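quick q for whoever's on today - can somebody do inverse folding on this one?? i tried earlier but teh output was garbage lol. C-alpha cells:
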C-alpha cells in the first residue's frame, strides 16, 4: 500500500516538473520573433524584420548558422564568445532585448562611443567592411536567436542548406 502512495507522489512531482520546464522554454521565445514568412531560406517576423527559424531537433536556418560564423572572427573579439560580452564590449544577448533591427544596423555601420564612461570603450564603424555589411542580417538573426534564448552557446549542430538567393546576394554584395 505504501509503495502505491509513493508512486502517486512521484508521478505528481514529475508532472509538475515537466509543466515547469515546458513553460520556461516557451516563455523564453517571444511571439514577436516568430517567423511568419520565408523567402529563399530567409525568415521574417510579422513586422518584416529578419528572424531565425529553429526546428524542434535544433536544426537552424542558414542565416543563423552563417551569422554564427560571421560573428566569430570579428565581433567576438570584443563582445565575447556567443555574444555573451567581455570586458571590451557589452553582452549583445542582453542588448538585443531592447535594440530594434534598425538600431542594430545603425550602430554596426556607424559605430558607437559612450563618452560618459570613465573608461572609453569604442564600438568601431563597420560601414565600409563588406565582410560585415554583406552579412549584417546573418549576424542580426544569429544574435536575435541567442538573445531570445532560442539558441544555446557554441556552434549550431545542424543547419538548412544555403539557398541560391543567399549565394546570389553574397556574390553581388561582395563584388568581383
Ligand atoms: C573593438 C571592439 C569591438 C568590436 C570588434 C565590435 N564591437 Fe560592438 N561594441 C563595442 C563597444 C565598446 C560597445 C559599447 C559602446 C558604447 O556603449 O558606446 C559596442 C556596442 C555594440 C552594440 C550596441 C550595444 C548596446 O547595448 O547599445 C552593438 C549592437 C554592437 N556593438 C554590435 C557589434 C557587432 C555585430 C560586431 C561585429 C560585426 C561588433 N559589435 C564588433 C566594441 C566592439
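ok took a stab at it. sequence:
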Amino acid at each position: 500500500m505504501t509503495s502505491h502512495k509513493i508512486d502517486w507522489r512521484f508521478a505528481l512531482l514529475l508532472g509538475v516538473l515537466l509543466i515547469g520546464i515546458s513553460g520556461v522554454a516557451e516563455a523564453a521565445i517571444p511571439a514577436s520573433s516568430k517567423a511568419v514568412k520565408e523567402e529563399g531560406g530567409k525568415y521574417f517576423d510579422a513586422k518584416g524584420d529578419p528572424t531565425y527559424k529553429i526546428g524542434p531537433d535544433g536544426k537552424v536556418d542558414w542565416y543563423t548558422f552563417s551569422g554564427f560564423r560571421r560573428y566569430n572572427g570579428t565581433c567576438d573579439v570584443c563582445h565575447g564568445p556567443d555574444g555573451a560580452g567581455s570586458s571590451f564590449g557589452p553582452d549583445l544577448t542582453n542588448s538585443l532585448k531592447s535594440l530594434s533591427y534598425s538600431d542594430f544596423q545603425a550602430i554596426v555601420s556607424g559605430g558607437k562611443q559612450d563618452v560618459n564612461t570613465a573608461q572609453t570603450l569604442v564600438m568601431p564603424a563597420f560601414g565600409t567592411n563588406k565582410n560585415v555589411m554583406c552579412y549584417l542580417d546573418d549576424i542580426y538573426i544569429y544574435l536575435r536567436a541567442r538573445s531570445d534564448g532560442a539558441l544555446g552557446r557554441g556552434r549550431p549542430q545542424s543547419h538548412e542548406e544555403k539557398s541560391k538567393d543567399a549565394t546570389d546576394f553574397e556574390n553581388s554584395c561582395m563584388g568581383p
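fwiw Residues 74-75, 77-79, 88-90, 92, 95, 99, 104, 107-108, 112-114, 121-124, 126, 132, 139 surround heme C (CB under 6 Å). also The domain at 34-174 is CATH 1.10.760 (Cytochrome Bc1 Complex; Chain D, domain 2). so keep that in mind when u check it
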